[in-house]
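In keeping with the milestone schedule agreed at the kick-off meeting, the structural modelling team has produced records for the first pair of proteins. Each record is given below as a sequence line and a structure-token line. The laboratory manager (R.T.) confirmed that both were archived under the project's standard naming scheme.
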Amino acid sequence: MKPNKKKKRSGLERRQERYGWLFVLPWFIGTVYFFLIPLFQSAIYAVTDVNIVKGQVTYSWVGMQNFVDIFTKDAEFLPDLATSVGNMVYQTLIIMIFSLLMAMLLRGGFRGKAFFRGVFFLPVMIASGVVITILQEQVLMTGGSMGNQDVYLFQVPGFNFFTEQLGMPQAVTELATKITGGFFNIVWKSGVQTVLLLAAVNNIPTSSYEAADIEGATAWEKLWKITFPLISPTILVVLIYSIVDSFTDYSNVIMERITEQFDQGYYEYSTAIGLVYFVIVLLLVGIVNAIVSRKIFYQTGR
């Protein structure tokens, strides 16, 4: 008599399965309509010549010519790509260190801990990406125009105003402005990373640190032997998130170039740049994941 390998599912299991499908349904719909369909349309644009005449869109097949032009005729793409990668490396490194430091500081018990946690997540709740770019460039500086003059809504003296009043050299002023502006961007972009690392740090059992204290371990040893290994899976997630966030930031030179080409009516060429950029970012993320995953410690239960 052959054993029956199929196990009849209970009504509770079937309901749980339906709830699971309902849970992933919004993600599935969003993936299809906001990623797969636009990706397919972008692929069509990239291999055609798009012409718009009297509201009618026509496509002429050009094959891989747009992609060839990116590497053979476009003298700015590779330098811009190198700049984008270079900015990503140092920004990601600084964000990782800053987020981990803030997570370790916010882990301790002190008054106002919840307030400071909310402050670091505030940039995520207020705005991100294109929204903050619009706020910085249009709302905080020029709110509109009246005739030939700009109307300033919230114009306040910038940092360079104070350095000029102090009589500092132009080179010092530019360096100081760059540092302060970079610090603001780093803090602004560290909200999600800080929250994720804070959750990982708070999930470390206190018994691990108590056992280390009994053995006479120093704070430095506990950091490298306990904290880092146990939060390493979250570090990988934060690292990949930071890389993607840097590459897709609207101040990124490649993203600005794509937008510029699109605004000038070069739809097919801007789409080709976007697809090439997408593949390059995907490869870099895959390489980073393959390298860093070897050092990740996954705690398994018995």
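The second protein of the pair:
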Amino acid sequence: MIYLDYAATTPCDTAVLQEMLPYFSEVFGNPNSLHKFGMDAKDALDIARSRIANAINSNFNEIIFTSGATESTNISVIRTMNALQKSGKNRFLTLPTEHKATLMVANYLKMNGFDVEFLEVNREGILELETLENALSEQTGMLSVCHINNETGTMQDIRKIIEVCHKYGVLVHVDATQSLGKTKIDVRDFDIDFLSASGHKVYAPKGIGILFCKKANMKYLRVPKANPEVEFGIRAGTVPVALCVGMGKAVEIANKDIDKNWNHAVELRKLFIDGIKSQLDEIYINGSEKSNYPGIINMSFRGCEGEALMMEAKRIAVSSGSACTSNVLSISHVLDAMKVPADIAQSSLRISIGKDTTAADMEIAVEDLVNATKKLRNMSPVWDMIKAGIDVDSVFKR
């Protein structure tokens, strides 16, 4: 079976695994211990932290290791908003297209008395600067925005978004889960306040992530009476050295190969899209044509249901943009926020490309999806309605 779901998770790189192995059984000390075993572990932790700091052009002491991007987002957003609330900044902004982890944080803040607004995006999933500027006020404390959307690959203009926010004194948290190691991130150049990312999206192990916090903002995150020797007083517990070593190595490798992997994704994206569109009609690409990460393709096969396509195309592993639960069809919240017609949104699949994906893999994916689409359309009354020119969008509206 061909794996084309790299936006969900990646396998651990062999070089990363080899780098990690000694820290499970040989260099096993606690990095907070003062003896040689602890000092050796601390040295490895420092190297891992430095590798990540170098990759995003941050200071060594601005990188906090966490269990993943979800924890990083929770720490940075909730603690910062709690601190800012004391000075009257009670307003939090985000987008309806964000990852569900961020949406859960936003809903938590809303339930706890914060003023939360979900800013509209355009039909490509882009936050327009005019929309952002109109939403900012003296009471706005923070904006959380995803750099590369995990479902569509749409890329936000982080630099301009941050410029607008900082003009109003608003802090910005960037969800870089899909962008770390895939596109150049310079936290100094972009002037990022907080950044979250997970290791398992860049061929590191699961269970490890990072939080970048600009030094001036550390005051918002520190826990009173916490041990400053453990992740700068921001996160408690024994640091998993082996996992940190793995993430440091993975980020270093990914950052070195960004251009090569980007161009590889561009080539395979074109091969796949051209192959599908040359054999099928009523095919739609969801997201931005001009501002996107090429390794994520969100494609709708109108007249089919996404999960049915997944089950019928048996040689490939991809994700569906729709979910059928208790006989009620629901569509992706991302595509819904982009105002993609419901009958198109419910037929979407996410195909995500990895560094080891080959042209042959994509050709098999094209063959499987073309055959599956033709089979399902032959059985679909919806497809008959589409061919007859009937407006079927209302059939799927909630």
